[in-house]
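Input/output pair, single chain:
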Amino acid sequence: MTVAPFLPERSEWTVDDLDDLPKDLPYELINGRLIVRSPTALHQNLCVEILLALRVNCPTEYLVSIDLSMRVDRRNEPRPDVVAIRREHADRSPVPVEDALLAVEVISPSSTFRDLYDKARVYARAGVRTYWVVDPLHDKMTLTEYVLSASGEYEVAAHTEDLFVTERPWKVSVDLPALTVRRAGLLARDGQ
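Output:
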């Protein structure tokens, strides 16, 4: 029998408090709120598909990773579902957010507001140049690409349910219809 870790009750958390938590706990800190995630296999499979699409043309000086902590400030240490960083941080956690070229979040039923608003603001304030939000919760999967504007806020650069092609952070294409079909196949029950 496994015993769940005891988490102290706090109304406000800081990155210093995270040092007291078990190191293998899948947490993130957003605006002083501790979030302990428990993603589904379907969610993680989609993250891997996005990682593979990004890895195809990834320049040698960069690295694409899944679920990597990024230190932003005292109240924020998000864990993007997928992130593109400088290769020099391959053995470091958390990584400095300044070196993130792209953060990707895959929406789940419990993360929609957090991914679309809270994390977008955190990443924009930290200077992450490009932010993707993948939404698999509807009949057709969508991807929205946000680009950091001169004012320091994200602007929508693309939104599609078709083949997504971009040059940010390098040439990448994501076949959303194929991912939608794959998701449907994974969700299909035998004989249905």
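Residues 17 and 74 are 10 Å apart (CA to CA). The longest strand covers residues 100-106.
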